[in-house]
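name: query_chain
kind: protein
chains: 1
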Amino acid sequence: MMTIEQMYEFDLNGYIVYPNILAQEEVEKINTIIDNAGVGAKRKFSFFHIDPYFMELMAHPRILGVLKVMLGDWLRFDHAFGMEMGKTSPIPEDLHAGPLKEQRAFFYQWSNGHMRNGLIKVIYALNDVNPGDGGFICVPGSHKGNVNYMPRPDYHLVVNPTLKAGDVLIFTEALVHGSRPWKAEQRRRVLIYSYAPGCLAWMDDEWCEPYRMLAANDIQKSLLRSPHVNEYIENPDLSIGRWPRNQTRPAVQFPRDEYMRATEAKHTLKNIKHSVRQVVNGVRNLGQLLRG
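structure:
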């Protein structure tokens, strides 16, 4: 969930920081796992295969509550990566993104009293980020910008949010953002999870296939499903499709296996009814022929 104050802050800035989502013990556990796996030396690294705990983070209850406000119940996980930076790490990309960039996958708007977003990023900070340290930067409010202009990283409106280890920063990809060189003695380390509306995908769906086998419960399985619009049925017997009555059933609350069984049973029943109607109509036509 989001409070009205949090929604106001996110609407105003395009990003929001949730402090202390991870306890210190959890931060230490994650850093130990990454250190032991030896993947943190890379600037970008994958991590799902290292430990089941990272799948649990994908479905973190508090974060899912926020994402349901930002993306709706029919949200899905899209991709993830870790990032580590030191003083000599290169910055491959300056400020980028913005409203309706990347085939309009980056968007932000309000409609019928609800927030609508395209791709959303969730950053788990695994070390402190103090003023001037570098790392994540953005232009607050640029997710609603109307002027086609990309500022320099040293532009006076660019901010470098401070974070404590265990904090989570969430931003819409419609926000102009990027990175500054890292200047602190300790290395910067974050985990970045990306989510999207259920019908949208940034990465090819094949990217998620290996991780579906790692899903340990129905919520994780549901978040890893292929992108599609919930349950819309293209009926070949009609000129248009139709929405079933339970079209808005929350994906992250309805177990995937049960959902599949219920959907299959509903479609089977429809097919039986359709077949019965065909038989009845056939009998009627035969009766008319015999009487004639």
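note: Residues 77 and 195 are 4 Å apart (CA to CA).
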